[in-house]
Amino acid sequence: MKVCDIMTPNPISIEPEHSIGTALTRMRRGGFRRLPVVTDGKLIGIVTDRDLRLAMNSPFVLREGWYDSYLMEHIEVRSCMTADPITITADADIIEAVQLLKDHKIGGVPVVEKKILVGVLTETDLLNYLLHLLQEQQPHTTV
């Protein structure tokens, strides 16, 4: 089984100059925990919900509510993304992908071909595949 067989193709992404507010909105609407950051289709980074929370919630800064709105619209994604993230190719074996996520303790990885973003492989994709395999092994019972 290959990554391309279970990945999420053509994922929602964001550009580095977009605000973190835009990133949060896209994540919430799609139920995502990470967004690939692209320029002209090429992957340049990844931003996670954790990255955005850390950018917004410094425990060392006391501020009023209006300032949160200001930050959401004026901090660019590039300021809190992970540049040059770990990636995998679409033709990589699923075992390689699982090992990559486990070794790096990450919940998802962008799938690229020649630096062009083609998909995302997440823990959820892998769990869905595992569930499919387990269901196939269950004996079929008739009522």
SSE layout and pairings?
Layout: H1 3-6, E1 8-9, H2 20-30, E2 34-39, E3 42-48, H3 49-56, H4 65-74, E4 82-83, H5 94-104, E5 108-113, E6 116-122, H6 123-137
Antiparallel strand pairs: 1-6, 2-3, 3-4, 5-6
Span from first to last CA? 33 Å
What spatial form do the alpha-carbon principal axes imply? globular
Please list the strands of the largest sheet in the order they lie side by side: 1-6-5
Helix-strand pattern: HEHEEHHEHEEH
Name the poorly predicted regions. none
What do we call the CATH topology?
Answer: CBS-domain
Q: Tell me the fraction of residues in β-strands, as a range.
A: 15-25%
| Main sheet characteristics | 3 strands, antiparallel
Average pLDDT over all residues: 89
Which structural class do the helices and strands define?
Answer: alpha+beta
Helix fraction?
Answer: 40-55%
